[in-house]
Structures are given as C-alpha cells and as structure tokens.
Amino acid sequence: MRTVHKLKELRTILHNFREQGKRIGLVPTMGNLHDGHIALVQRALEAADVVVTSIFVNPMQFGAHEDLDSYPRTLKADQERLEQAGNTLVFAPPVSEIYPEGLANQTQVVVPGVSEGHCGAGRPGHFEGVATVVTMLFNMVQPDIAVFGEKDFQQLAVIRKLTRDLCLPVEIIGAPTVRDEDGLALSSRNGYLSSEERQHASALYRVLRDTAERLQESHPKQLAELEQAACGQLQASGFRPEYVNIVNSLTLKPALASDSDLTILAAAFLGSTRLIDNISISR
Ligand code: PAF
Known about the structure:
This protein is α/β, with parallel strands linked by helices.
C-alpha cells in the first residue's frame, strides 16, 4: 500500500488506475483510525476496485477553542491498519497542499438548510469547513463512490446535499455506526475520556434507545417533552447535554406529526469531551 502526500502524485497514480478501468472509492478521514473507519474502508472495497483513504486533520472545520492542536495524529499506526484492511492508497497531504493560500483566502462551500441547527448551531463554521474539504477531496480523487459514517448523521446529510446541488458525479454511501460492546459509538474523541468517564459514556446510546422506544408509542405533540426527558436522563448520568433533537431524517427539520422517518440527534459533553450519536426510526 502506498502513501502519497502531494496532489500531483495522487493524480498520476489515479490516472493510471482509471486507464485500467478501475472503479475508485474514497474514504475521507482525519486519521487516528479505529474499527469504525476500517468498516468504512471495507464497505468501500465492496463497491470499488481501488480505495483511497485520505488522512487530513482539516483546520477549517475546527472552531477557535476546539481541539485542532491536540487532535491525535497517528499516521504510522493508521497506515498499518489500512494495509491490513486491504486499502489501496493513502493520501496524507500537509495543510499547505490543501490550503496553499491559507485558510483566510480559501473559497468555501456553504450548504444551506441541513448545516443549520444541531451541531451547526454549537460549532459555527464547522460544516462549511467539512463541505469545503470534502468537495476538494472529491475533485482531487474524482471517486466513483465515497463512504461516510452514519454516526456523523448531520455531516452525511450535508455531504449528500452538496453532492446533489453541485452535480458531483460521486455516489455517497452511508455506513452504519460501529459500537463498543456497551453501545458507545466508536469515535476518535473517545480517547479523550478518563476511565471513569468511559464507564459513564455508554449512557448516551442508552438514553437514545430509550427515547426511540418512547417515540414509537408517543403522540407527535409530545416530541418536545421527549427531548427534555432525554436531556434530563443525560444530566442524571453525568453528561452536560448540548442538544437532543427529534428531526425528520431527510430534512433534519423538527419532526412533524406526518413524518414517518425520524432521527433522534444528540450531542453532550462528558467532562470536556463532546460526544455525538443518533438513532433513526420509522413509524
Ligand atoms: O468525519 C470526518 O472525519 C471529517 O469530518 C471528514 C469527513 C474527513 C472531513 O474532514
């Protein structure tokens, strides 16, 4: 498995694969890979002949007081895991390769609607950073398919919309969330949790499951009460909830009585670590 750091080299290699008629898959990541990422690579290998995994800690999607500097950078371990998984090529560019004129001079991609609210409210500019780098990666790799995790439900909605709106010729595949045995969704940020916090962390998924069960039986007018109850349960488990929102799974707008596909989105802090998770139901 090769690792390239420069766009020019990436393009030459991919040109050769395309000449051979190979179908190209892309798995964008910020590295510090866990089993959830490897599941994305495996899903991409089912749909493509050649899989490019990008590893780039994208400064544009971090807020001023967020964890850009401390975000774990573990390229060597990531390469080993990807090699074992059968990944074809790693693209690990330096910041100067992606933003040669600096962040302030970079053209940005803004995705209205689905970027707003939820994580978009608590992390202003975050989804513009994600949408911009993902659009650039699509143009750099020109993949036939790209795989993203459903754990980042709002991010997936943003990427699906930008792909549709900008007529990008790439199929977006959402892959199910991979969880630890106790239900905690795998995330690079789980590594920030102390051992005591880690013991409490599975409450996030438990509360979501409990809320999903109640949602199946509840009257649509009770949604706000369900959201409040879920926040209360999270607080009782030691979390500081940022939001629990019950939304239409496609628009991410507050769920209406007539909606049949619903998603419960949640973000909550455990100590200084911000965790997100979601559950979708049909009724
Ligand atoms: O989900 C992530 O790891 C990042 O947001 C992504 C999609 C790689 C863009 O930087």
